[in-house]
Amino acid sequence: MNGSNLHVDTFGSKGIGLSTEERACLATSLVGLTSSQAFSSADFWGKIATADVSKDYYVAVAYHGDPFAPTIFMCQDALNWVQAPNVTDDEMHAAADLRAAFMGDPAFEFPLPNGAAGTLPEAKRLTAVVQCILRDAHIVPRGAYFRDSLGKLQRNATFAGLRPHDVTRLASYVHLRPAATSDAQLARPDFEDAVDVLDTVEHDQPKGCWVVEKSVMNVVLSSLIWPGYHHATSVADASFASIYVGQGKKNLDAGFMI
User: Fold this and answer.
1) Over the range 149-183, which residues count as b (16 or more CB within 10 Å of their CB) and which as e?
2) Helices (H), the chain
3) For residue 11, with 0-12 CB atoms within 10 Å meaning exposed, 13-18 middle and 19 or more buried, which class applies?
4) Contact 43, 33 (CB under 8 A)
5) Nearest to 21 by CA among 82, 78, 81, 80
6) How far, CA to CA in Å, does 55 sit from each of 22, 48, 75, 81?
C-alpha cells in the first residue's frame, strides 16, 4: 500500500484482508527487495486473482525516487519477487480488453482479443494490467506531492492531510501520473503553482466512475473502471493508501452502469 502508514485493515469494509502469514512474508520480503536493489521504497501494491486461488499473484511496486517510474515485481508466495517484463502500448490495450481469467501460470499464452493475431503471455498481461491501473486509477490527495524548483515531482514532507470539508470532494484528489496538459488545474480558485501540477480526479470520465464513502476514520474512493482498486485517506492526519485486489479486468461497461 504505497505511500502510507495506513494498515491493510483500512480496506476491510471492501472485503480485503491478508492472513497473518501473508503479512509476515510481505513485511520481510519487501524490506529485502528494497535493500537488494537500493530502491528508495518497495511497497505492496495488491493481488490479482487467478483461476487457482493457490496461485494468485502478489504485486509490488518499487521506486528509485521518480514517482512516475515504478518498477513492478510479481510473485505467488509473497516472498520471492521477480521483476515483471516490460510491455508495449499495444500490449496494454490488449490486456485491458481481455476477459479470460488469469490462470496462475506466468507462461500461459492468451489469444489476443478482438480477433487480432498473436498471443500475450500471462506475465506480460499482469504487467500491462498493473500499468493500466496505475495510469487510470492511482490517485493521491492534493498536496501530497509538489513540483520542486528543478521541476521534479517530490513527496511533500509538510503535507498535513486534507481539510475536513475537502476530504470527500473529488477535486481534492489527483492522479499520480504525468498531467495530460501543462495547465491541468489553472482554473482552480485555490490554485497553487507548485501543487496543482497533476490531473484532478473530478474530471475523470465517465462522470461518476468514482464511489466515495466516508467512515469515522477514513474516506475511501473506489474505482468503477477498475473494480478492486481502492484509495483511502485519513480524516485525522496525513495518512493515505491505495490497494488493488481483483481479477485484473477493466470494467468495459462502466459508462452504461452510471
Assistant:
1) eeeebeebeebebbeeebbebbebbbbbbebeeee
2) 20-36, 89-97, 122-137, 254-257
3) buried
4) no
5) 78
6) 13, 10, 9, 14
pTM: 0.93
Angle, helices 89-97 vs 122-137, to 10°: value is 90
pLDDT in tens, 125-180: 999 999 999 999 999 999 999 999 999 999 999 999 999 999 999 999 999 999 88
Q: What radius of gyration do the chain's Cα atoms show? A: 18
Residue 184 above 60 pLDDT? no
Cross-strand pairs, 242 = 231
Spatial distance between the Cα atoms of 248 and 48, rounded to a whole number of angstroms: 6
Taking only the tens place, the pLDDT of each residue in 47-81 is 999 999 999 999 999 999 899 999 999 999 999 99
Distance CA(117)–CA(122), nearest Å, equals: 16
Question: How many Å apart are CA 139 and CA 199, to the nearest integer?
Answer: 10
**Cis peptide bond upstream of 206, omega within 30:** yes
Give the C-alpha separation, 29 to 34, whole Å: 9
- Rounded CA-CA distance 163/239 in Å is 13
Place of cell 495510469: 135
| Alpha helix positions (H), 101-249 | 122-137
pLDDT at residue 197 in the model: 87
